[in-house]
Amino acid sequence: MNRMTLQEKIGQMVQIERTVASPQVMKNYFIGSVLSGGGSSPGVNASAQEWIKMVNQFQRDALSTRLGIPMIYGIDSVHGHSTVYNATIFPHNIGLGATRDPELVKRIGAATALEARATGIPYLFAPCVAVCRDPRWGRCYESYSEDPEVVSSMTEIVTGLQGDIPSTSPKGVPYVGGKTKVAACAKHYVGDGGTVNGINENNTILSRHGLLSIHMPGYSASIIKGVSTVMVSYSSWNGDKMHGNRDLITGFLKGTLRFRGFVITDWEGLDRMTSPRHANYSNSILRGINAGIDMIMVPMKYKEFIDDLNQLVTNHEIPMSRIDDAVRRVLRVKFTMGLFENPLADETLVNHLGSHEHRELAREAVRKSLVLLKNTNSMLPLPKKGSKILVAGAHADNLGYQCGGWTIQWQGQSGNNATVGMNTVDKQSSQVVYQENPDTKYLQSEGFSYAIVVVGELPYAETEGNNMNLTIPEPGPTMIKNVCRAVKCVVVVVSGRPVVIEPYLKWIDGLVAAWLPGTEGQGVADVLFGNYGFSGKLSRTWFRSVDQLPMNVGDEHYDPLFPFGFGLTTEPTDDSN
Ligand code: BGC
Ligand code: BGC
């Protein structure tokens, strides 16, 4: 660090988006980090080799600077390496929470790390350790649970992503176990899931005790496991923007919890400290960096950021000691993870992307994430033979819907072509008929033994997912009504959170919450047809009506449709039935 100029130090604090990065920019500004924003890829259906080519080029530019400090490339692999074509897409966190299986989640972390490394990427903006306290929040599915204990247990994913921290490692020091592991990021610090009415990026009104006991445990647990970075939340706590909260970033995170990795802003996090955005940018930079933020996800207007920060340091408004702390932390993570020794991609890893082994793991996760909510007359598991089965609903044949947001595109998408995988109810026998939206006449004439109706939410991410009514979009409800009144039926709900279901419950014989299962939806059929039993438990309270919200386990007035922890079980059946 003694050899670094102020320009070089500032460069280490800057993260820019790949679309504004170029050889000149990397070199002239000594850029320390590049990211892919949501859905930002080097091309449609880009291969692992194309990703590697892009990342390696940015790296060579960084290495060609005076000190040759490698840049670190980051991406949102929040349910597998989910921006990349042909990657294995795992269930979103809400489903993983329902497995109550930290060891499984650790294996998912290890698989995700390998798939990221297969594309030359060593840094992931995951895990999200948000404790979603209101399902109206557009990011509810990114949260493992409303219960801080379940969220903390799931931070086992950090050891999968980064490797097992040695027992001799001092508390708070980041750890990454080499070339097949990645640097992780616990986000969004802190209280992101506690905002008023679940409004994204809004205000969390809570006592200090409430904040520490509900929203902090996921960070303590991640830090003990050696998490390398922490991302700050857009949200406010009792009216103060987290991006300017020196007490919680420098005082609590770096002080009390002894976190020694780096703290990163969210995307345009400093711009969003003011309303309107970017209104007093230089002041926001001042507040954010003096609060203790080390790396800034600028990510587009890097020139303005660099000029402003330079001025603030030259004017002594930001002390050099603060800059040095930031740079020391960024370099510590880069050294720890072996980026100086191995800055370029290891091309021997490319075949891990979407490997058979990883897809089997995802299918196991899907099976374990399913929560059986109703099972009249033990309708489930379904018989495999001798029946004529109707499968209905757009969600039964749409990988995009089954994957949800943060899949290939930031907001996710519709259809079967953008990812590679298996739908929820692929043919189990020749007696399966698929009709997206069957009419009444058809239902009555065909003599079905039973129907499987797959309905749910359409993909969304972040603020676009805020939803104050939480109803299943049409034709879902109408189809439940029409099909389930005509034929014995199982309803499979594909959604990022509990949705309004009570009005239809009387018609439904079997009800399954499948969350957002990802590309290996066959895991749903595995359990419906009894190859495996149901074992998942609700990681969230299932409300009766939205006017009850927020309502969480432990609340004084707790009158859910299905309580936190609920989940019926079935035994696997043998193949002869
Ligand atoms: C980016 C995302 C980012 C979002 C923030 C999008 O344009 O692609 O990565 O999370 O903006 O609003
Ligand atoms: C999201 C983060 C994400 C970042 C980069 C932001 O909009 O809040 O979770 O890591 O974009 O894509």
Automatic annotation (TrEMBL):
Domain Glycoside hydrolase family 3 N-terminal: 5-333
One BP annotation, GO: glucan catabolic process
Reaction equations catalysed: Hydrolysis of terminal, non-reducing beta-D-glucosyl residues with release of beta-D-glucose
Alphabetical UniProt keywords: Glycosidase, Hydrolase, Signal
SUPFAM superfamilies assigned: (Trans)glycosidases (SSF51445), Beta-D-glucan exohydrolase, C-terminal domain (SSF52279)
GO MF term list: beta-glucosidase activity
Similarity annotation: Belongs to the glycosyl hydrolase 3 family.
The protein's name: beta-glucosidase
